[in-house]
Amino acid sequence: MKKVSKKMKNMQKLLLIMLGVCLLPDIYGQSSGEKKSPASLAIELKNAHIWRGIDVTHNFLIDANLKLTDKTNMFAIGLWGATTFTQDFREFDYYVGFYKGGFTLEIWDILNFSGKNRYSAANPYGYNTEKAFDYSAHSTGHFVDLRLGYTFPQKFPLHLGWSTVIYGRDRAWIPGADPDDYKDRLYSNSRYSTYVEADYPVLKSNIVDLKVGIAGVFKFRDAKIDGQIIKGNFYGKSNGIVNCNLVASRNFRFSDAYSLPVILTWMWNPQANKTYMEVAMRVIQF
């Protein structure tokens, strides 16, 4: 009898979870007279996690977004987290936001525990991501992302976004006296790496919605250590285009109270010469 691979086992888990969610009773619907809750929750199942031109993980994962909004829907605080079934990737984020018309302003505190980022004896070039409350500039595994966005009115629904890493893990470094100890590293100044994006919906239909996007990166300051300039920024080896994408989505409605949005994302990173694909299913949303 053939041995079942880990990926096949993860696929089986994913299908079982999907089946269970689809068979849930309609407990998430609200009657027309029911008071709206200030809290919202969205849970997704994904085959991978790609972000800003980066292949964060290519294993199956689950992510959750818990959001609390005020009565005006202008202010919000939230938690976003994710983990793969194999535990090789974990992330825990906090965020606050302001929303007015098509304008958004958010500040995210991001802590990524993925294997290639996590410091250990086996990975001395990782970051100190195990200490959740370490915010020291030269040792923290966190990074703080300031995000601005604007979406034009429906006649021309172009979305523009600007994100700058304003604190944390946006520093270059070189090994110190002990190359295996992150505490001995020599760190540069913060680079204030910035990600600028634009996307536009090119098709809306009963079958599928399509959106195209493009994004580039640059840094405000060179990283310098003892007068030496270290090349690169938070997203890659140089300034340039890191994300060209096509997003296809459809909302499958099973009843008046339950629907299943499915989002497929194809992403090309010209700078890294890489391509990625992500499939996401929003199994719970209320």
Strand order of the largest sheet: 1-4-5-6-7-8-9-12-13-16-17-18
Q: What proportion strand? A: over 45%
Using the alpha-carbon principal axes, give the shape.
globular
Rg result: 21 Å
- Tell me about the largest β-sheet: 12 strands, antiparallel, barrel
Q: Which secondary-structure class do the elements indicate? A: mainly beta
Q: Termini separation (Å)?
A: 43 Å
Number of helices: 1
Share of helix among residues? under 10%
Overall mean pLDDT: 84
How many E strands? 18
Unreliable parts: 21-32
What is the helix/strand order?
Answer: HEEEEEEEEEEEEEEEEEE
Describe this structure in words.
The chain is built from one helix and 18 strands. With 286 residues, it is mostly beta strands. It has a domain at 101-240. The strands form four sheets. It has a twelve-stranded antiparallel beta barrel. Strands 2-3 form a two-stranded antiparallel ribbon. The chain is globular and about 60 Å long. The model is unreliable at 21-32 (pLDDT under 50).
